[in-house]
Amino acid sequence: MLTGLFQSTTIPVLQEVVSFAQARQAVLAGNIANIDTPGYQARDLSVEDFQARLKQAIEDRDQATVQSPSEAELPPKPLVADVAKSSQTILRHDMGNVDMESQVTEMVKNQIQHNTALTILTDQFHQLQIAISEKV
Q1: How far is CA 122 from CA 11, 17, 57, 116, in A?
Q2: Nearest to 70 by CA among 61, 82, 79
Q3: Among 118, 126, 128, which Cα is nearest to 15's?
Q4: Would you state the pLDDT for residue 62?
Q5: Contacts of 73 (CB under 8 A, 6+ apart)
Q6: pTM above 0.90, yes or no
Q7: What is the C-alpha separation between 20 and 45, in angstroms, rounded?
């Protein structure tokens, strides 16, 4: 019963977004930590791939809800995309391609996405708490 309640909300989706943002933040931080490592190639998680897989999971969940509400679940983890090489920066003389400005920019955008998902998730839990504790 509770599984169906949570699966019919945006909570599982927001949980995946938060998990992805945390994993991506670690990869981006690793890029900055290795900025002076000769030959280090910047890495990133594919946001587009994650979004496409998450969209497909939501569509599958919604279709399953129409057919059989008791089996409506997101696919098993992980929805986190594989680490992909980033080729958006200029190669330096030491064969490294980590650009501090672009990494910090990506970290800030990722942090905003993470904070937004957490805020919405917190509001969802607050609404559930109000609904549960409401005396009729």
Answers
A1: 9, 14, 22, 10
A2: 61
A3: 118
A4: 78
A5: 3, 7, 61, 64
A6: no
A7: 9
